[in-house]
Specification:
With 373 residues, this protein is α/β, with parallel strands linked by helices. It folds into 2 domains: 2-177 and 357-370, 3-Layer(aba) Sandwich (Rossmann fold); 181-355, Glycogen Phosphorylase B (Rossmann fold), CATH 3.40.50. Helices cover 36% and strands 22% of the residues. It contains 13 helices and 15 strands. It has helices at 23-32, 79-83, 85-96, 111-121, 141-153, 181-193, 214-222, 243-250, 265-274, 289-296, 328-337, 342-352, 358-370, and strands spanning 2-13, 19-22, 38-46, 54-56, 62-67, 101-106, 126-130, 158-160, 171-173, 200-205, 231-237, 257-261, 277-280, 300-304, 319-321. The strands form 2 sheets. Strands 1, 2, 3, 4, 5, 6, 7, 8 and 9 form a 9-stranded mixed beta sheet that branches. Strand 6 (101-106), helix 4 (111-121) and strand 7 (126-130) form a beta-alpha-beta unit. The radius of gyration is 21 Å and the shape is globular. It starts with a strand and ends with a helix.
């Protein structure tokens, strides 16, 4: 059985000629080889060096089909998506001739035209994966259009984050996989060996921007007062255009802040293994894989109550910040003034991460999608 995956995943050419793609997606496709004999991945090929988060595929049974980069943050960038539509559809059509199943990964710019195309003109079985915030009240227009099509205009299965009132029957609540069994075993050992009495280390992993809550984190540490003595350091993993501004803010904090930039998956795991708290007070999310990865290594999640996150993180296994009720610095100060049972929360967070294994994901795909046609 053969699969086509169509996505906006960024790929780069390595010096040795191999292609490397965004690590989380590449790992997921590597594990899907347990279900499929071959996989063709239609994705975006960028010029320039690959970031540390990029990985080559683990098998030559995965074939990369490049398309040109599309879209961008500016309004002027949007028409370029439609200009590329004929070439993208042509590449997708050629790949679909070679496979038995397909998966389209949304939301993405090309989803504006590919979701209708796949829904109306493709007869082969397939499913959609919507990795964004399914319940987002004010999504960008393109995301709103894609969500409308997936929910109302077609009946193929759609995997989404979380469970929601009025959820259509063909929209299945799926956890986003990110852990294998070896990582689960390693996480259990690390969690059991951590000392949560202090001094503590906290971390953030992601794009350095206000929407992810980086500014809030720095403001919260600035407002800690005497409680700052409970921390050894704060780690910020990632990069972004505001990094210099954040570094200037960090210079006056009572807690040392380490800016790591982008790291490989193994290096990120090394940070998570020594940290006690994972911070993500963001504006909007689907369900970030990094929350499950951090929880696996005993990092108690301190996260915002957006999208499906409160369906997994609660007072027993983490700390939930509700943005409309108080500022994050106030919430953080209150949380740290009474850090009861951090070790117990960490153990329950590690248990939560069991839902996000590739083994569970493959089993559900097989039972609820591949064998349910």
């Amino acid at each position: 059985m053969k699969l086509a995956v169509i996505s906006h995943t960024e790929h780069y050419r390595l010096p040795d000629g191999r292609v490397a793609g965004w690590g989380p997606t590449v790992r997921e496709l590597n594990h899907l080889l347990e279900l499929f004999d071959e996989i063709w991945h239609v994705g975006v090929l960028h010029e320039g060096p690959a970031p540390p988060s990029a990985l080559p595929y683990a098998s030559d049974r995965i074939h990369f089909v490049p398309i040109k980069p599309f879209g961008g943050p500016r309004l002027i960038d949007k028409p370029g998506i439609l200009w590329q539509a004929p070439a993208v559809i042509r590449a997708v059509r050629q790949v679909l001739r070679q496979v038995d199943w397909w998966q389209f990964r949304a939301p993405t710019g090309i989803g504006v035209f590919l979701i209708p195309y796949l829904s109306l003109f493709v007869r082969k079985p397939g499913w959609f994966k919507y990795a964004g915030n399914w319940a987002q009240e004010k999504p960008p227009p393109g995301y709103r259009w894609q969500r409308f099509w997936l929910a109302k205009m077609q009946k193929r299965k759609v995997t989404i984050n979380g469970k929601w009132p009025g959820q259509p029957g063909h929209c299945l609540s799926f956890e986003n996989p990110c852990l294998d069994e070896a990582e689960r075993e390693r996480g259990a050992q690390i969690t059991a060996g951590k000392d949560y009495s202090g001094p503590l280390e906290a971390c953030f992993v992601g794009r350095l921007e206000d929407a992810k809550g980086v500014g809030r984190i720095l403001e919260a540490f600035a407002a800690l007062g005497p409680e700052a003595a409970r921390f050894r350091r704060l780690h910020l993993v990632g990069d972004g255009p505001k990094r210099e501004r954040y570094e200037a803010m960090a210079g006056s904090l009572p807690v040392p802040v380490v800016f790591h930039g982008f790291l490989s998956r193994e290096e990120v795991a090394g940070i998570l293994e020594k940290c006690h708290l994972f911070l993500l007070p963001s504006d909007s999310e689907g369900f970030p894989k990094v929350v499950a990865e951090a929880a696996n290594y005993g990092c108690v999640p301190v996260v915002s109550a957006v999208s499906s996150i409160p369906q997994y993180v609660n007072s027993s296994n983490g700390f939930l910040w509700e943005a409309g009720r108080e500022s994050f610095p106030a919430f953080w100060a209150k949380t740290m003034s009474n850090p009861e049972s951090l070790g117990e929360k960490a153990q329950k967070a590690h248990q939560l991460a069991a839902l996000f294994t590739f083994e569970v994901y493959r089993s559900r795909l097989e039972a609820e999608i591949l064998h349910a046609v």
